[in-house]
Amino acid sequence: MEIKQLLKQNLMILDLKASDKDDAINQMVNKLFKEGIIGDKDSYKAGIVKREEESTTGIGDGIAMPHAKDKSVKQAAVLFAKSSDGVDFNSLDGKPVELFFMIAAPEGANNEHLQALAKLSSLLIDPKLVNDLKKAGSSDEVWQLFENAEKAKEKEDQADSSKIESSEKPFIVAVSACPNGIAHTYMAEAALIKSAKEKGIDIKVETNGSEGVKHKLTKDDIERATGVIVTADKKVEMARFDGKELLNRPVIDGINKSGELIDSILADQAPIYHSTGADGETESTSDGSFWGEIYKDLMDGISHMLPFVVGGGIIMAISFLIERSVPSTSMWFTFPNQIGTYAFTFLIPILAGFIAQSIGDLPALMPGFIGGYMATQAAASVIHTTSVAGFIGGLIAGFAAGVIVNWLKKIFQWVPKSLEGLKPMLIYPILGLLLVGGLMFFIVNPIFAGVNAWVTTFLKGMGTGNAVLLGTLLGGMMAIDMGGPFNKAAYAFAIAAYTSTKDGSLMAAVMVGGMIPPLATAVATTVWPSKFTETERQAGISNWILGISFITEGAIPFATADPLRVIVSSVIGSAIGGGLSQFWKVSVPAPHGGLWVIGLADHKIFYVVSIIVGALVAGTIMGIWKPKLKKAV
User: Fold this and answer.
1) Per-residue pLDDT tens for 322-339?
2) Residue 546 region, left (φ>0) first, then alpha (ψ -120 to 50), else beta?
3) Is CATH 1.10.1840.10 the classification given to domain 3-109+125-144?
4) Does the annotation mark 67 as catalytic?
5) Which fold has domain 171-266?
């Protein structure tokens, strides 16, 4: 399929007049809808916005490639738009965007469509084509420029040998991948190939895009290579590069810094990559962020734990509501209560097991799970106590299991290939469980059972003043990054307290704090509509529902566009709301649900008042602080 079959003349906006990023996206989405390319504007636009939240598609040099693969797309297409004044699109180089390529791909896009999109992406690294497009005055001229560029690229590809020759030239291998695999994957591939050619070296680039893996690197390719460049924003197979010089960078660096990456490999400046064993499980690199890795592992455990928390917690909370009107021996109480209790039984084992798996992969899952279970058992210790190591013990079990299994992989690298199967089936399960179990039995449970007992006693006996301070802190943390590390840390602390004490006070604080940011944006856009774009006003309406549903992420688009005002306002309001909930002794024995679980709350009126006060304070600060929109000239 040729590029011209996707880049149709009726899908061009040659004089885009947009005041900001949201306005530009809105106009392009409307054009696609008007031309019958998409059937649902909201669905497709949500996909575009979600991709922008992951990382901007403004790649620099005045180009942006917003894209989404969505069920609402009727046929694959590319919309071309040109802005003579440029639009602030949060580009990586901070420069306004003049050329837009909005890519619409159906969920079941076939290989022909994907290959054409990949070809389009690879052409856009040519500065001459980009400059000519900025000067183009008609859709015919744009079409002709791409036709000429496509033909020139085909001739160039035919002139070059498609396979890597065995020569004395330096040889590098690379992997390119992005979450959607539509544009950036192939732009990085093209940029790396172009830079390699300019430097007179050979390169082979494996792409992990929507078409699947293309140009897969062989064992011979990797062994022959001077070094490896991985430009990826998603998981790729890494253990095959064990012992090679390797740079691991975001995919955007493959587009904008391809020459620098190649120079670093040629100058032997890349660190040596070490897999944790010969089994092919690990993909972290030696130059990765230590705390970033810990956060990733922790979030993996929490994400797998949350369904148990939400499902079990709400069902259990409903049983408490039912208990108020029926005897505690009634089936109507015991049935939901036991289901919730069973779900809660797995919270800490699931958390520990998946933290362990994130670190040591599948061999670490079982010892991590059992270690987490031991953290919930009062008798599983050299001291018999009624206290358990609990949430803290589970965290330690998970991280310890992952580290121990990785350590075992290194120790048993000497095992002959003929006996490789023994390691995951025999060595890792037995030794891993023995070591993790011993750690929990002799050290972690005795120590942290006491710590957990102290925390439980402190929380139960906490005075009003301390409770208000803690509620203020937790509420404010929920708004700092709206789903990020601070938010998750506050939520995890409240869950730990809830599982230990069955007291929903701190759950109330984090629930109130998490509801306020989206509600604040709803308040601000309603009271001060002239200070927000049409897109933001529409999002503000949606945030009334998202806010009362405890979906803090509804405020993220606003925080992305204006982080200082939105985040500061939200933190102030959330801190006030969280503190008030504790001042009025509000308790919500459910880990999710927002206002929908108000029937389960103690002091229901004060629960609502805490939310309203916090939202009004945050929304008022945001609305007054926000400057008026500049009128488009």
Assistant:
1) 877 888 788 998 999 899
2) alpha
3) no
4) yes
5) Rossmann fold (3.40.50)
